[in-house]
Design the sequence.
């Protein structure tokens, strides 16, 4: 009886957690923005370090319109995706500052699934997961910007 109750609570919790990202107005609005980010005005992009495999070791703020455009273009062909045990090579947390709001997420360059973007809330809820066919260009643009800002030319 206790086992059945535990399974019931687990199933209900899992369904609620999964459904939240589809019914939350914030999540829905954010997904619409991400899926059309290339046509929006991005004011700045901040690349933050993450715990393991981080591309950056300290926050990197990008305000140069050319660099921002190069990064945003990587979002052009974004597609929803359900990853199957991605094996990350490098990771960076991104904050895309629009005129009226901020989009947060983590960008993963993986060994087995290409580049993935996890759209997240500030508290870490994952609202959407995307595969990015042009995602390698984002990592290249970030690496160029690291060199520019850290004095490498």
Sequence:
């Amino acid at each position: 009886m206790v086992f059945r109750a535990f399974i019931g609570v687990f199933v209900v919790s899992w369904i609620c957690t999964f459904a939240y990202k589809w019914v939350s107005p914030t999540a829905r609005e954010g997904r619409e923005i991400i899926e059309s980010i290339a046509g929006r005005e991005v004011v700045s992009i901040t690349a933050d370090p993450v715990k393991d495999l981080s591309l950056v070791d300290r926050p990197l703020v990008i305000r140069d319109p050319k660099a921002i455009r190069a990064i945003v273009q990587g979002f052009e062909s974004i597609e929803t995706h359900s990853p199957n045990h991605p094996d990350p090579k490098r990771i960076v947390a991104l904050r895309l500052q629009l005129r009226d709001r901020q989009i947060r997420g983590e960008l993963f360059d993986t060994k087995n699934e290409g580049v993935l973007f996890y759209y997240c809330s500030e508290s870490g809820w994952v609202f959407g997961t995307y595969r990015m066919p042009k995602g390698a260009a984002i990592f290249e643009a970030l690496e160029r910007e690291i060199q520019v800002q850290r004095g490498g030319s």
